[in-house]
Amino acid sequence: MTTLEFKIEINAPKEKVWDVLWNEETYKQWVSVFCEGSYAISDWKEGSKIHFLSPNGDGMNSIIYKKIDKEYIAFKHLGEIKNFKEMPVDDATQEWSGAMETYRLIENNGLTVLEAKMDSVEKYVDYFKTTLPKALDLVKKLSEVK
């Protein structure tokens, strides 16, 4: 597995960037880069389950591994969801089960650096290298709106 790292500077306070990342309405906007209509179901508390879903009910079953409000969140991806149901871990899923995805916000004088890290199996590395920066660009645009 490869850990991909991305950074983007955003001209907004970290509280605004955090809200754009995890507020239901704006979350749906920036994750649409990965799959139109994607959304998440969770209570957004550390240790809780989170389901990342596409409109057809496919996605990932994960947990919120660590959360520091308005600073850091880490997701641990556990398995697949098919037709809104968690699937047992099979050989293909075992290859990436336990992968981490993290977001860190560091603010300095009203400028926020958003750092995103994602573990990926080799076959998806190029996809995420192209797509995640587009998603972060959208977070930047949404955060910089006055």
Automatic annotation (TrEMBL):
Residues 11-118 form the Activator of Hsp90 ATPase homologue 1/2-like C-terminal domain. InterPro entries: ASHA1/2-like_C, START-like_dom_sf. It holds the Pfam family AHSA1. Belongs to the AHA1 family. This is SRPBCC domain-containing protein. It comes from Flavobacterium fructosi.
